Each structure stands twice: as structure tokens, then as C-alpha cells.
Description:
The complex is a heterodimer.
Chain A: H1 2-23, E1 27-33, H2 40-59, E2 68-74, H3 79-91, E3 97-100, H4 104-117, E4 121-123, E5 138-140, H5 145-159, E6 163-168, H6 172-184, E7 191-197, H7 206-213, E8 219-223, H8 228-238, E9 245-246, H9 254-260, E10 268-272, H10 287-301, H11 306-325, H12 330-338, E11 343-344, E12 349-350, E13 365-371, E14 374-377
Chain B: H1 2-19, H2 24-49, H3 57-74, H4 79-102, H5 106-126, H6 128-131, E1 137-138, E2 143-145, E3 148-150, H7 153-175, H8 178-188, H9 190-195, H10 200-226, E4 228-229, H11 236-249, H12 254-271, H13 278-292, H14 297-316
Antiparallel strand pairs in B: 1-4, 2-3
Helix pairs in contact in B: 1-7, 2-7, 2-10, 2-11, 2-12, 3-4, 3-5, 3-10, 4-10, 7-10, 8-10, 11-12
Amino acid sequence: xxxxxxxxxxxxxxxxxxxxxxxxxxxxxxxxxxxxxxxxxxxxxxxxxxxxxxxxxxxxxxxxxxxxxxxxxxxxxxxxxxxxxxxxxxxxxxxxxxxxxxxxxxxxxxxxxxxxxxxxxxxxxxxxxxxxxxxxxxxxxxxxxxxxxxxxxxxxxxxxxxxxxxxxxxxxxxxxxxxxxxxxxxxxxxxxxxxxxxxxxxxxxxxxxxxxxxxxxxxxxxxxxxxxxxxxxxxxxxxxxxxxxxxxxxxxxxxxxxxxxxxxxxxxxxxxxxxxxxxxxxxxxxxxxxxxxxxxxxxxxxxxxxxxxxxxxxxxxxxxxxxxxxxxxxxxxxxxxxxxxxxxxxxxxxxxxxxxxxxxxxxxxxxxxxxxxxxxxxx
Amino acid sequence: xxxxxxxxxxxxxxxxxxxxxxxxxxxxxxxxxxxxxxxxxxxxxxxxxxxxxxxxxxxxxxxxxxxxxxxxxxxxxxxxxxxxxxxxxxxxxxxxxxxxxxxxxxxxxxxxxxxxxxxxxxxxxxxxxxxxxxxxxxxxxxxxxxxxxxxxxxxxxxxxxxxxxxxxxxxxxxxxxxxxxxxxxxxxxxxxxxxxxxxxxxxxxxxxxxxxxxxxxxxxxxxxxxxxxxxxxxxxxxxxxxxxxxxxxxxxxxxxxxxxxxxxxxxxxxxxxxxxxxxxxxxxxxxxxxxxxxxxxxxxxxxxxxxxxxxxxxxxx
Lengths: 379, 317
């Protein structure tokens, strides 16, 4: 009998706790990122940023008085895992909104599921296919590969270069970038005189570069991320190829300069303003946002990356939408995200509308060049 | 006796969604466990009964999936016809491959099948105009069975479980047939089997093709169920996972391999919450099973249960 008494008290206490917790039901933010695997250098800063910002918001009293709860799964860059985690987030964890999809493959894989379930999804990946054609529930905050291609072509046009050699890897990012470059080239009067490819795990790209050397290319574009672009850069130097080299925004970080060493000098690429935050004029709208994010991130984790910035933008856009909607109702939040206007993020100024679920324009990219081992804005 | 096992399994599978309606672990995990089980049952025919290893089984799984994906998205082909086409393609390729490849034994056979798997994976990544490259193909329509569209989780659960029961039924019948006995003879000793008048080459080819057909069938269902395919789902890791499922469940046991597939799928879902420690716990559990139940999970557990039962009877007597 004694035993029963204790049990009843315990049960009552538990009930009290759960009902108390029920009073301030948290807003559940679901996330699936490639924190491990080949895209870990993207996913890792994204997750850290989400954790940092969620903590920050909760310390300030949450959203409309409700704390945020972050539920995260690591996909390891595998699209099949991404889909099963999104199902789990929707059906088991009953999240109110999803931010994630580090790679385009991960993001594309889950679109049918989020559309079917009717839940706002903010993708952190690059491919333009994610939001074109427009999907009702899908948004995206990272620059597209098409923007990167356009930015590179603009710079080539300024320099009066038209014959270009292309060298890309076999990953999703590389292939999607290559496709956009080839598609956009005629608009800018660019012709590709070589189109070489390598495996992203290759350790030597001299054969491809030798072929490019024998072509009449005036510049080289290398679209990829990870180690491979640094190897291409080094191999070019070793072969004595003295053409202007353009990389993609996929390597816009200090890591690339460290990996490629002296060979990185003069390499140009389109990058988010975050990598050159200090060099921006003080009139720049983004500057205070960039510096604040950079300071907060670097105080906790070390060098900032533009990819973490995407997670910041995604979460802040979602939070702003929830504030406007008044609660976390999925349909209302979706409508409010779509109405995002003049939101100043790390990637640029976002102006979304029903036909544009990203809302960035080309100004969001800065053309930067490596000078003395650091990124400098090219005017 | 064997029939009883089959019916118990069928009833259990049918009762689960009634007992736990809208439960993620039944509806979503159940579907992927079911697909894996079909693959494992098929691979077990080759590995468990005929004693031939395949480290490239994900390739056949992928062929079924990509055939369905390409035909339904690019040519608006009805899903059942696409499924049949996937079966034919995988079957023909398996048949062409079987003779030269199955002459090899042991490590050499492992290497050859591994190489085959890698080649198919590279094709999926590189043949972008057809396969969509590394990002794969999107927007695959739901499976349409003569007007009945499989578009909800519950319907998928029903279809996959029916397919699994069909696969188990086929496997049980096959094993108990003339071919099944021939295969077991091949596994024991190929020379002895030849002495008994068994055309071992033919027997091995047949089982390789059947095994590939199981995989392609699962692949087609997988493509429709996920409504997207990408090369990630058919790489070497997947092939190795399939072998693990068969070995873990128990070689040469149809229920064993299904059991291994279900156990591994559930284990992955259960361990996800441990994040960084997931792989460590996963590995430790696999090692423990192999050390303490070398015949596999299914046989190990059923023997354990029998022993307990006997102990209990003795105690009460």
C-alpha cells in the first residue's frame, strides 16, 4: 500500500510537469544537414549557426513567448537518408517548419514529401531547380549556381575575355553549375573551347589541364567545392598556365586559400559579402548584420563561413514570418515567408514574392580576388 | 509447420497498422524495412542457399529503380509496364553476366560483383541526360495498380507488405523445389553436385537471375515510393549493407534474412538519437550478434527461445 502512495504522488507530479510544459508549447524547428560526409564543411557551420541562433532567441524570450526547439538529424550527404529524416521530422517529431538540405541532392529529394505534407521548408542548397518552377511550400536562401555563372560572365565581359575553358568535378554541385554555365554562356557571348571533368576524389588534374593548355582559352572556370578546386589551382601553377582562373562560390572560404597556398593568388570568384565584411563601405546595408553574425559565431566556434550564414538567414526569415503570422501555423507562416521584403541577411537583401521564392538579385554576390593570401573585393 | 510461420507473419504485419495507426515507426520505417527485406530475401537465395557472394546487388536494385523512374517521368509510361521493363532489363543483364562471373569463386567473385556494382553506380552519376546525374531524378508519379493509385503511407505499407509476403512465399517454394535442392548441393560442394548430375552452371545462373529480379522489383517499388531516385541509394555501401542484413539475419534462412533486414532498419532508426555515437553502438551490436549468435539473429533467437521454453518446462515438471 505504501508503494502505491509514492507512485500516485509521482504520477501526479509528472502530470503537473507535463501540463505546465504544455502551457508553453515550444515551436519545433526541424532540420536535416550533412554534418558528416563529403559536404560536412557546409553542414557543420550550418548546424552550429542554427544551434547558436536558437539559443540566442530563446534567451531573449523566444518567438511570441514560445521557445524554439531545434530537432536535427545528420544525413551524411545521402539523399535517401534526407528523405527518411524529413518523414521522421514531419510524422514523428511533428515539427512546425523545416530548415535544411545542405546539398542540392538532399533538398531536391525531400520536395515531394514537404509539398505533400504542406509544411514550410527553407532549403540551404544552391541549385536553381529547387525553386524553379516555384513550389508552394519550398523556399531557398543560398545563392543559385545560375547567379554565380552570371557574375563570372559579367566579370569576363568587363575584361574582354570570350574564349573560356571549363573544368568541373563529378558532384551534384559541379554538374549543376556546369549546366548553368553552358546554358547562360550565349547570352554573354562566351564560347567554351574546352569542357573537362574530373572525379572529386582525384588528387591530380594535370591531364585535364594539359588539354586545356593546348586549347586557345583566354580564361579558365573551375566549378566545384572541397579539395579538388585547390588541386586544380595548384596544378595550373605547376604547369605554368598563366590564364585568369575563376572558381565558384563553393570555395569562398579561407580554407581554399590555405589549401592552394601561393597558387591561389589572383584567383577570382563570386562570393557572399560575408567573406569581405570588413571591407564593405559603412553605407552598406548588410555590413552591421554581417559583422554582428561574424562576431557572435567566431566568439564560439572559430572562422566564419558563408554557409553558416545561409542557416542564419533561413532561421531569421522564418522567425520574422512567425512574428508576423502571430503563431507557428504552417499555412500562415508560409504566406508570411513569401511576403518577406527587404530582409537584410548575410547572403544579401531578400525580396520574395509568389513567383520568386529566393528573392536575391545579382548584387548579393561580390566578385572577390585573392591578394596576399586574403579575399579582396574587385571593383 | 512452415505454413504456420508464414501466416503468423502475415497476420502480424496486417495487425500492426491497426494497433498503431499513423505511427511513424510502423508506416514509414515499416515500408523501408519491407523493401530491405525483399532485397535481403532475394540476396539470400544467392548467398545463403547457393553459397555465392554478391557485393554488387545494389546495382540490380538501382536498375529497377532507374528504369521505372526514367520510363515514367520522361515517357509517361504506365508504372506497371515500367516495372515489367525494369524486371526484364535486370533479368537479361543478370543472365548475361552470370555465366562469366559465376565461374569465379570466393574473393574473385566478390571482386567481380563489386566491380559490376561500381560500374553501374558510375553510369548513374555520369549519364546525366538519362539519369539526372548525382542529383538524380525527381517527380516520379505514384504507383498505379490498374487505376488504384498508391499515394498514401497506409497504401504503401499494404503494397510493400504484400510484395514482401509474395517474395517470402516465392523464396520458400523455390528453396523446397528441385532447383532449391540443387542449389544446396552446389553450396556444399560444386564437384559433388556435378557428380550427382546437376548442371551447376545453369543452377547458379538461374538463382543469380532470380535474385536480380527480386532486387529490381524492390527497386521499382522504391522509386515510386520515394518519388525520386539518386545514385546515393545504390552505391557500394548499400550493397554491403544488404550482405550484412543477410548474414546478420542468418544465412540460408528466408525468415532469417527478412528478420535481419527489419532488425537493421529499425536499429538505424532507433540509434539516430545518439547522433555521433550511432555508428559506434551500431558496430558494437553487430559484433555482439556475430560473436554470440554466429548462425544469425533469427536462428540464434529462436534457439534461445526454445532453450528457455525447455528450462521452464523442466522447472515446472
